[in-house]
Write a structure and sequence with these properties.
This protein is 14% helix and 38% strand. A hairpin with a 6-residue loop joins β8 (107-115) and β9. With 154 residues, it is mostly beta strands.
Amino acid sequence: MNLSPMVLQQLVKELAPQVTRRLIREAFLTNNNTLYLNLGETGHLCCSAHPTRSYLSLLDPVEKPLQEQPHWLTHHILKSGIVEIAHIPSERIVQFTLNKRDRLGTETQYKLVCELIGRHANVILVDATNNNILGALRHVRAKQSHVRVILPGR
């Protein structure tokens, strides 16, 4: 089901008090298209980039799979705090602002962009300071799209 921008805006208003100022305790992929963020007693925030059924929802806790997780997920998202959730006006895009503090106390800010746009749906992690892509659920190479390439480091 594709969400309209107005429905997505209402969803973000409902999710905001439940997910802001929460620590991401676990982050994992259940398959190549779905990202789960464990927010403790709040539940799991699920961001799906499936080509036919992209969605964003808050679910009861689910079991973590025993598969290897990508580096960008475990290194950048794990133990980050959700500072803000925002809906891009007139778009089907939701952006989470994440803060992470390393062992030395240095804070790093990230943007987790959930694009819920049908077959082009994607979840992209971006470094907020220089707008470099750190990771994405679905990589888009130059052969696939000459308009927008989604690869780490771009």
